Amino acid sequence: MFEQINSQSLALGKSYADTFVKAQGLALAGFERITELNLKTFEERIKASVDFWSEAAEVRDLDGAKAIWPKGVQLAKENAEKFYANTQEVLGVSLKTSEAIGALAKGSFETTNETITKQVNAAKKATGAR
Questions:
Q1: Predicted structure pTM score
Q2: 8 A C-beta contact, residue 38 and residue 22
Q3: Could you give the CA distance from residue 71 to residue 125 in angstroms, rounded to a whole number?
Q4: DSSP conformation class of 61
Q5: pLDDT of the chain along its 130 residues, tens only?
Q6: What are the E-state strand segments in 39-102?
Q7: What InterPro entries is this protein classified in (predicted)?
Q8: Which is the most buried residue in 32, 83, 103, 124, by most CB within 10 A?
């Protein structure tokens, strides 16, 4: 009897360990995608800022400052829009990752529940109890 309980416990532990390893893989993949999105956005925005400030450094008079002012405003607007869009993409990746991990956990719990229910019913039948 103890051997049966131990084997069931080991099988249950293995099942949960496999599920946790899969969940960790999903989480790491999501984190990798989020990092990739953030780095790409920051790289683009830094390049745009460097280009703007390189051009702004060449301004020597008031007319040059008047000409570059709209470009500075446009840069600020683009930065805000790009960072907002990046935030939305990151949120989407986070939600998809969370849903995948949730579905994985739910499947694991349902499988465990079915297995335990079958074993309990088999034990009831074996002992003649109702």
A1: 0.75
A2: no
A3: 80
A4: S
A5: 566 667 777 777 888 888 899 999 999 999 999 999 999 999 999 999 999 999 999 999 999 899 999 999 999 999 999 999 999 999 999 999 999 999 998 998 888 888 888 878 887 888 875 5
A6: none
A7: Phasin
A8: 83
